[in-house]
Design goal:
Elements: E1 3-10, E2 13-22, H1 27-39, E3 44-55, H2 57-71, E4 76-80, H3 84-93, E5 101-102, H4 105-110
Parallel strand pairs: 2-3, 3-4, 4-5
Antiparallel strand pairs: 1-2
């Protein structure tokens, strides 16, 4: 399975829609996308993970790295995810305390976190 990435801007946020699997093989593609966005001045990112079918530790590392990058610019990184199997990974690793995770793009954009 490959990784699909599309981006769009909505207000102050750049939304990255991710589909497929984020694993050791595909994570570098997501990492490059996040680096390019932050380098280009996008400091408020929203990663829509509704289309993600699999996430491993490499993928988690890329998301944490992205969070560190935006925070260096007083930015934010929010996630959209409702899939229980993916949410379970965030709960087990304690990353639910690190990332604001929302049920929809609209909810994430409206949130004050």
């Amino acid at each position: 399975m490959d990784l699909s990435l599309t981006t769009r801007t909505e207000g102050d946020f750049t939304i990255v829609v991710v589909g497929g699997e984020i694993d050791v093989y595909t994570a570098p593609k997501l990492r490059e996308q996040l680096i390019d966005l932050v380098s280009g001045g996008s400091y408020h990112l929203l990663v829509d993970m509704e289309g993600v079918e699999f996430l491993d530790s490499t993928g988690l590392g890329v998301l944490v790295g992205g969070l560190k990058r935006v925070r260096a610019h007083e930015g934010s990184l929010r996630l959209v995810c409702t899939q229980e199997r993916i949410l379970k990974i965030f709960r087990i690793t304690g990353l639910t305390k690190v990332f604001p995770i929302h049920a929809s793009v609209e909810e994430a954009l409206a949130a004050k976190d």
